[in-house]
Specification:
heterodimer; A: mainly beta; 4-stranded antiparallel β-sheet; B: mainly beta; 50% strand; globular
């Protein structure tokens, strides 16, 4: 079964840091680009970051540039999102998602991990 | 950034109804558009990609059409499992952006 499982979500104070992880199984992780998408409470979906299969192409939405870093370890089938200088507006469920083929839409999603930024 | 606008924001319908949701882009995205379904507390599920291609395993009552700046998602005969929120997403250019969502609820 193709599966993505996120972890690392927590309650953190403004200005703090958090590292999210996602582990893929049931498919050849190293051949797929991956993304992080978030959803603030009672809000819509927001694409956050993208990494190509070989880590040579990285993209970020403007609001997280300079604060978040996406990375992956294909040997461990894992995807990470290092989040620094967290703000209240970063509070959301963070989904790890697989990118289909050479495009930028997501065909497999994890169940999400919750990040709450609050004092 | 390309802005995606869905209409309506909420749609009340009955089982068996034909339902149409519209998604408009602020500039052309060619056919690089996807549709997702999301139920409360669950992750989104891919329904349609490249504007009109049905994802494997998705019922054929779902269909997509359009190109350029205007797109539609149609459910030919609404089923109880289809009450959910639907999002369009453009992947023509980064940052990839979603519509605000259309909630389909029971009339």
């Amino acid at each position: 079964e193709v599966q993505l499982v996120e972890s690392g979500g927590d309650l953190v104070q403004p200005g703090g840091s958090l590292r999210l992880s996602c582990v893929g199984s049931g498919f050849t992780f190293s051949t797929y680009s991956m993304t992080w998408v978030r959803q603030a409470p009672e809000r819509g979906l927001e694409w956050v970051s993208y990494i190509s299969s070989g880590s040579n192409t990285l993209y970020y939405t403007d609001s997280v540039k300079g604060r978040f870093t996406i990375s992956r370890d294909n040997a461990k089938n894992s995807l990470d999102l290092q989040m620094n200088s967290l703000r209240a507006e970063d509070t959301a469920v963070y989904y790890c998602a697989r990118v289909k083929g050479s495009y930028a839409f997501m065909d497999v999603w994890g169940k999400g991990t919750t990040v709450t930024v609050s004092s | 950034d390309i802005q995606m606008t869905q209409s309506p924001s909420t749609l009340s319908a009955s089982v068996g109804d034909r339902v149409t949701i519209t998604c408009r882009a602020s500039q052309s995205v060619s056919s690089w558009l996807a549709w997702y379904q999301q139920k409360p507390g669950k992750a989104p599920k891919l329904l349609i990609y490249k504007a009109s291609s049905l994802e494997s395993g998705v019922p054929s009552r779902f269909s997509g059409s359009g190109s350029g700046t205007e797109f539609t998602l149609t459910i030919s005969s609404l089923q109880p499992d289809d009450f959910a929120t639907y999002y369009c997403q453009q992947y023509n250019s980064s940052p990839w952006t979603f519509g605000q969502g259309t909630k389909v609820d029971i009339k």
